Amino acid sequence: MAFSLAVIVILGLFADYIFRSIKLPGLVGMLIVGILSGPYVLGLMRPEMMNVSADFRKIALIVILLRAGFELHRDTLNRVGRAAITMSALPAVFEIVGVTLVAPHWLHITTLEAAILGTILGAVSPAVVVPLMIDFMDRGRGARKGIPTLILGASSVDDVFVIVLFSIFLGMYGGKHVNVWSKLAEIPVSITLGILVGVIAGYLLYRLFTRYDWRPPKRTLIVLGVSILLTWLEEEVKPWVPMASLLGVMAIGFIILEKAQPVAHIISQKLKKLWVFAELLLFVLVGAQVNIHVAWKAGLAGTAVIVVGLLFRSVGTWISLIGTPYNWKEKLFCVVAYIPKATVQAAIGAVPLAAGVASGELILAVAVLSILLTAPLGAIGIMIMGERILDYGETSPYRFKDLRVKLDLPRVGERVRSKQYNTVWKIIGEKETWLPDGSEQDKMPAILVTYWKEGSGDKPGTGKTMKCRYTFQDPPFNDYWEVIYDW
Q1: In which element (H, E) is residue 79 found?
Q2: Residue 242 forms beta bridges with which residues?
Q3: Could you tell me the pTM of the whole model?
Q4: Domain 2-389, what fold?
Q5: What is the CATH number of domain 398-484?
Q6: In this structure, are residues 446 and 469 in contact, taking their beta carbons and an 8 Å threshold?
Q7: Bridge partners for 424 per DSSP
Q8: What is the rounded CA–CA span in Å between residue 148 and residue 143?
Q9: In this predicted model, what pLDDT tens digit does every residue of 229-254 receive, in sequence order?
Q10: How far apart, in whole angstroms, are the C-alpha atoms of residue 255 and residue 246?
């Protein structure tokens, strides 16, 4: 396993560098490294690594969704609410219908087998889409209309919806009595329960973090541990009740952000650093799951079925956006952002074959082919179109995030010690402002921090206080101060 991890890190980082240098998404290079180093091509991945691949990919996906949750602001969600609901189901339904119409004739399979294939192809990949949307959100792209938030939220629910439909069709194939309405009822139950459990966990973590002043890495590890526990809980309760634990993971970040924004931003920054390794694990291991020999069997007919499905999906996505304030270019971006396949297809593509479906091998081949075709092309399309289409305000508030990261500034409530005078102060206030120097385009972000000297008054704000203004021209905060933590 040690050798496999070395392959993932070294080759994955190298591919990421090469693809970024030619202005393409680094994750495409990671996917290609995974395909080439996987057991179906060069065989550089040890069997023991492939055995635990699913667990590693799940942990990496949890890191992504945690970062997503810590970027979800309530006002943005309110703006995109209706569109997010329609996009979580309508595009998938259109794609399933498109595949079901053409697959029986082109692949020579039954209508029910075509429906099973449609549900496998009908899921968008959060593993590809969410990281790209977070990157846009980090840089303020699309922030004005909340487009990345819309796609991020809808794509997460999309998978829940599609997997339930998949289980219905697969059960019908096996001759089992399937209560369709009962299965469909699992969709809202799964979503509601997953969010509810995440909200409870997030609130308890918020109370814990506001009562005890722990170091950010420890807070981050606790959040990650609780999130992994939620995914375990989903598997444990699955025989009795469905639960979308990955939505719960996002809810944890959302609640902490709503209740304690300073704490949320600190944890988010630590997750951003952890994401470097998680990204490598996720995309290289997803690529390693791809059997190109099986994909080859799908041939031109399989490619045609995938293309028709995507065309139907695009129509469904466009209809979902009717009535929104987006212009036609922004709607086209949403259509492209809903193309990539990877996570769900890799997870359930082989299930029909194992369940004894007559065309199971062909279904698996088309599923694998969909990853090969749509994951890299979709990621490239998202990056290129996003840079050209998504709005970007000249005075984007996300520039304050860059300032915080560059100077490693503390947050309200944290205690700091002066390295020069060995005095302890508490951060009791901060204000984000734009320095009016230069033109509108050249406005400089600045953060005004208010310090209170501990023990100089009866309560914070009384006694000795001071204000310091920080800009990109100032040295890092840690050059003169250090943050004090209880543990």
Answers
A1: helix 74-87
A2: none
A3: 0.73
A4: Na+/H+ antiporter like fold (1.20.1530)
A5: 2.30.30.30
A6: yes
A7: 417
A8: 7
A9: 998 998 888 888 888 887 888 889 88
A10: 15
Burial class (CB in 10 A: 0-12, 13-18, 19+), 42: exposed
- Note the maximum CA span of the chain: 82
116 in Cβ contact with 96 (< 8 Å): no
Cβ proximity of 30 and 12 under 8 Å: yes
Per the model's pLDDT, the better-predicted residue between 440 and 173 turns out to be 173
- Measuring CA to CA, which residue among 282, 292, 390 is closest to residue 26? 282
Buried b / exposed e along 218-229 (16+ C-beta atoms within 10 A): ebbeebbebbbe
List the chain domain ranges: 2-389, 398-484
For the chain, the residue count is: 487
Q: What angle do CA 455, 457, 458 make, to 5 degrees?
A: 100
What does the pLDDT read at residue 80? 64
Rounded to an integer, what distance in angstroms lies between the CA atom of residue 301 and that of residue 276?
38
Q: What is the pLDDT of residues 292-312, one digit of tens each?
A: 777 777 788 889 999 999 999
Give the tokens for residue 414: 């944290």
Residue 116 CA to residue 171 CA, distance in Å, equals: 10
Cα separation, 210 vs 19, whole angstroms: 42
Predicted confidence (pLDDT) per residue in 40-82, tens digit: 888 888 887 788 777 887 787 788 778 778 877 776 666 667 7
